[in-house]
Amino acid sequence: MNSILSSILVAVIAAAVVTTVANTCTTVYLHRGLSHRALTLRPSVAWVFRALIWLTTGIKPKEWVAVHRKHHAFTDSEGDPHSPVLLGWKRVQKGNVMLYREALADKSIIDKYARDLPDDKWDRMFFGHNKTGLVTGIIILMVVLGPWTGLLAAFIHANVYLAVNAGVNALGHHFGRRPYANQATNLQWLAFLTMGEGLHNNHHAAPSSPRLSHKRGQIDPGWWVISTLKTFRLATLRFNDVRLSRAARTGAA
C-alpha cells in the first residue's frame, strides 16, 4: 500500500512539474513570443522552448498561433474559433480541443494567420510530427519514473493542461473582473495555474505587451520567466512596460 501511495505521489509531483513546463512554454513561447511578437528569444532558447512544447503537448506552433490570432481578429464575434459568448462557456470548456481542430480544418487559416512561421528542417524531422512528440514525452516519463508511474503522470498532466488552458478560453471570457472594456476577464487563481494566462482581460487590453499583470496585487508568473531571460540577455522585449491598445486607453476603468 505504501509503495502504491508513494508512486501516486511521485506521479502527481512529476505531472505538476511537466504541466508547469508546458504552461510556461505556452505563455512565453507560443503566446507572447510567436503569436504577438511581444518578445524575441535567442534562437537557441527558442529551440529549447520549441522542443519542450513538442514533448509536453505535441502542439504544432504555427497551428496554435493561427487559431489564436484568428481569435484576436474576431474576438467574441462571428468567426472567433472558441468564443464562450457565442457558444457558451461550458461547450468551450469541454470541447476546446475539438474547436481548435474544427478551426484548423480550414487549411487557409495557416496561410492567413501564420504565414510568418514556415516549416523548417526541424519541423520536417521532429516538430511537425505531433504524435511523435507526445509519445516520446510519455516514454521519457516511463523510463525515468517507471512504466505505471510514468503513464499516470502523463495522464494527470494531459488532463490538467487541457483543462486549465480550456479555462482561459472559456472561463476567461465569462467569469471574473473586467477592468478594461473587453469581453475577456481576469481570474488570478487561473493565472497561477497557467503561468499568467488567467489575466486575460489585461492581455486583450494590451496584446503586444509581454507582461500580463497591470496593477499592484496582480501576479503573472510568466513575466518572472521573461524578466529572467531578459536579465541574462536571452530575450528582447518589444515594449519594456505595458502598452495599452487605443480601445483600452479610452475604455479602461
Automatic annotation (TrEMBL):
Keyword Oxidoreductase carried by entry: yes
Membrane-spanning residues: 134-156
Membrane topology (UniProt): Multi-pass membrane protein
Occurrences of domain Fatty acid desaturase (ranges): 8-210
Residues of the signal peptide: none
Main localization, broad class: membrane
Annotated Gene Ontology cellular component terms: membrane
Compartments, as annotated in UniProt: Membrane
UniProtKB keywords: Fatty acid metabolism, Iron, Lipid metabolism, Membrane, Oxidoreductase, Transmembrane, Transmembrane helix
GO BP annotation list: fatty acid metabolic process
UniProt keyword Transmembrane helix present: yes
Molecular-function GO terms, alphabetical: oxidoreductase activity, acting on paired donors, with oxidation of a pair of donors resulting in the reduction of molecular oxygen to two molecules of water
Protein name as annotated: Unannotated protein
